[in-house]
Design a protein that fits this description.
Blueprint lengths: L1 H21 L1 H4 L32 H37 L1 H16 L2 H12 L3 H9 L4 H14 L3 H8 L4 H12 L1 H24 L11 H7 L9 H28 L1 H4 L3
Keywords: Cell membrane, Membrane, Transmembrane, Transmembrane helix, Transport
Organism: Gemmobacter aquaticus
InterPro entries: BP-dependent_transpt_permease, MetI-like, MetI-like_sf, OppC_N
Amino acid sequence: MKAGANLYVGGGIILLIFLLAVFAPLIAPYHPITSANLMYAEEPPSAQFWLGTDEQGRDIFSRIAYGARISLFIGLAVQVMNTAIGVSLGLSAGYIGGWWDEIVQGLTNLMLSIPTIVFALALMAILGPGLLSLLIALGMTDWAYSCRISRAQVLTQKSLNYVQSARIMGFGTLHVMFRELLPNIAGPLIVVATMGVGSAIMAEASLSFLGLGVVPPNPSWGGMLSSAREQLMVAPWVAIFPGLALFAAVLGFNLLGDGLRDLLDPHGKGRK
């Protein structure tokens, strides 16, 4: 029941955020950028401004809705990049072995020894702020976990009969790795990728909070939190609602990943 609850609650949260992002132009009552009006600066939540306004008089709900687009896009795109890099390296290292495996393990250990946000900060300092720089920086920093998991799974699978049969039938290395091995090790990788989306959203928010992510005035949950620091005491809703949106997104992906883990790994249920 717990696994099912995590799956449904997490999936429900992500579905709501996804719908908010897709239908933002229809749901949001104001434009997230051009609706600035200092006459309505720091208005509390009301019937006119559902979640209040920020220091420039922009509607917070509208900016959260449009910011969900950016957060989901970055989270999914970054995780696709991380998964592609990590799985490709892990599959090849586990299957080919030898010197290539040693190189990949060395790179993986190096990446795991450096905090993700520190490495991303270093890359952003070189590339500069912006959406493309943000995707490159985050897409190259968090692939080590999927690499290590895929390599471990390949090492346990490559001696099994179905892999040996594919070799005997004359299939090449790429066919065996991506057509035979990958479908049979996909379960743990799906779980890691799902939880990784939440981590990527949090990393994007952290970089935007520091001024190295999405360039203002584009709506970003991290950027909204950053600009709310000076208004926190007089207008706390400016920070509370973007923070709740960020919390909900990360929680949703973590619960969804936890539910998928129990669903795809029935042996794991017995360990709880």
